[in-house]
User: Fold Cell division protein ZipA from Lysobacter spongiicola DSM 21749.
Amino acid sequence: MSDMTLLRIGILLAGLVLIAAIVFFGRPRKPGQGKRVPREAGARDQRREPTLGEQLEGELGEDGRPVGEATTQAELELFDRTLDSASAGSASSELGRRASDEFDKIVTLYLAARAGEKLHGPDIVVAAEKAGLVYGHMGVFHRLVEHHPEQGPVFSVANIVKPGSFDMANIQELETPAIAFFLTLPAPVPALNAWETMLPTAERMAELLGGLVLDEQRNTLGRQRIGHIREELRAYDRQREAPPLTKPGRW
Assistant:
């Protein structure tokens, strides 16, 4: 038998095996048929959990209530609470209004989504609530002085996309590459105290949103830069506390 004949027989057998495999695996399986294969150790790390925004879009019915159980009731209550405050009208719009429009310094941080991703509106709302922020004046979030909201914001959080507000009427569709934390001085508390409140809030929200905290130059916020900001704000507070210079009297 020649080599060519053997080659043809081999090709024919391979074709028959392929056709049999297609027929076998192409048949519909009965319910419960098949063997469950355990996932590899690294599979859990590679699986991307859906964001709360994606869950809300898929799990809320036309009436805004959950269809499934993927989103926790606590998160839905936080989300609903912010929507309720946004629809309360003029009362909520005054929350976070500064007592004075005058300021002499602004300290800024950014919370940015990771490369190729976006921050989603409903996720931001829930993270802000969990971090102790309230929705109010100018359609942004604020940290207020406890029991003294009339003193104005310790700091505020805005969308970096113009006009900077979070439109609750369209919050489901909102996507943004980053949000901005800004501390406008003078604040209702000492500048250093305000910073020590704003930084952990930004870090907490970054943890909740899976984002990164950046400095005012949009570089990763490191310990050295944090130390410089603290020194700047200590100096600012000392300058504010120093008594004004008295004018020299006439001889």
